[in-house]
Amino acid sequence: MKHLRFLIAPSLALAMAAPAVAEKLSLDQISAYLNGIGSAQTSFTQINDDNSISTGKLMIKRPGRARFEYDPPEAALVMAGGGQLAIFDLKSNEPPENYPLRRTPLWVILERNVNLKERDTIVGHSYDGTATTITAQDPKHPDRGTIQLHFTDNPVQLRQWVIQDQSGSETTVVLGEFKRDVQLANKLFNIQRLTNIVAPERDDD
After folding, report:
1. Taking the complete model, does pTM exceed 0.90, yes or no?
2. CB 120, CB 29: distance < 8 Å
3. pLDDT per residue as tens, the chain (205 positions)
4. Using the 8-state DSSP alphabet, how is residue 137 labeled?
5. Domains in the chain: boundaries
6. In the beta sheet, which residues pair with residue 39?
C-alpha cells in the first residue's frame, strides 16, 4: 500500500506516437479540455519510485469523482468521491485511509470549474516539442510535493502525470486512450458504501 500514497502527496517516457503537428497548449485550452470531461474510462500503468509497475483501470466522473482499480496481484482500490479520497486495502477488513480531496493532486483535474490561469498553484508551463507540461504545487504547503501533467494536442488529451512527494520520490502514471461519455454508476464512487462492505462496524457487545 505504501506506493499508493503518491495520490496524497505526489521516468517513463511518454508512451504515444507524436502528433503530426504539435504545438504548445495554452492554459485556457487545457482548462477547457478538463472541463469538457464528463465521464471517462482508461487503462493506466503506474511506475513506482522503486521501479515496480502496477496496472489497472481508471474511471473518472467529474466533478469530484474517480476510481482506480488495480489489477492483481495488487489488492488495492483508490476512490475519490464526496469530497474525500480513500485508499482501500482489499486484503484487510480495515476502513480505508481517508484524505480531503482538495488537498490531493487529483483535485487539479477533478474540481468543478478548472481555470488554470487563475490558480496560484501552477508553477510551471512548458513544451518539449511533443507534449505540454503543467506543474502544480500548493504555495502554502510546498512540502506536499508537486504534480506534473503532460498533455498532447490533435486532439488534446491527458497522457500522464508525475507526482513527486516531499521526500523526492516520484511516481508516474501513464494513461491509455480515453473512452469518453461512458455510463458510470454513482455507486462506483461511494466511499461509505464500500467501507460498509469491506469493514462493517463490529458489535463489541
Report:
1. no
2. no
3. 545 555 555 433 333 444 445 689 999 999 999 999 999 999 999 999 899 999 999 999 999 999 999 999 988 999 999 999 999 998 888 899 999 998 888 888 999 999 999 888 899 999 999 999 999 988 887 777 889 999 999 899 999 999 988 788 899 999 999 999 999 999 999 999 999 888 776 555 4
4. -
5. 2-12+22-198
6. 61
Strand partners, 156: none
Residue type, 49: D
The 10 Å Cβ neighbour count of residue 99 is 16
- Amino acid letter, 150: H
- Which grid cell sits at 105? 493532486
Residue 19 C-alpha from the chain's centroid? 24
- Output b/e per residue, 26-54; b: 16+ Cβ within 10 A: ebebbbebbeebeebbbebbbbbbeeeeb
CATH class name, domain 2-12+22-198: mainly beta
Residue of 5, 42, 18, 2 lying closest to 165 (CA atoms) = 5
